[in-house]
Known about the structure:
By secondary structure, the chain is an alpha+beta fold. Helix content is 23%, strand content 18%. The strands form 3 sheets. The protein has a 5-stranded mixed β-sheet with strand order 2-1-7-3-4, with helices on both faces. Strands 5-6 form a two-stranded antiparallel ribbon. It has a two-stranded antiparallel ribbon with strand order 8-9.
Amino acid sequence: xxxxxxxxxxxxxxxxxxxxxxxxxxxxxxxxxxxxxxxxxxxxxxxxxxxxxxxxxxxxxxxxxxxxxxxxxxxxxxxxxxxxxxxxxxxxxxxxxxxxxxxxxxxxxxxxxxxxxxxxxxxxxxxxxxxxxxxxxxxxxxxxxxxxxxxxxxxxxxxxxxxxxxxxxxxxxxxxxxxxxxxxxxxxxxxxxxxxxxxx
Length: 200
Ligand SMILES: [Zn+2]
């Protein structure tokens, strides 16, 4: 039981945007206090504590938490019922956040590196009028950055593995997710952003 309570739960704000990761223990406390609702990962129905206990009775899968009077499934996603000021939080255009957005992966060769071995590349070089903005900066390994030089990707015969855009969700959530991402979280993690494929 201790183990289940320490499991990770994705926290969504009222606009269904992922803003944090909490433990099952913390998530259930928020639900108990009416500060959050549990999101059913099959049909995205929201439950308060009582209705979740009820819904858990029919559950055949998922991790269970057994208390004295009831057994409930461990939630995987919760939705905050109140705005906590997080909606207005803009993703800061910082080196750290660009590395997070690009998963420490060179956006030209697609390989992952230590941050120390990565650089930031202006897709349209500054000397050609390229701006320092989310849509024009990508993470590149030293080799690719050197190869590209002051050219456009096309001129260097290089392709971006995905179109750089401004992340909609705070990338610090991205850090916290780490490798513990659950399949049920994917829908809320701005798949539209990570899965954008460049047209050939
Ligand atoms: Zn590279």
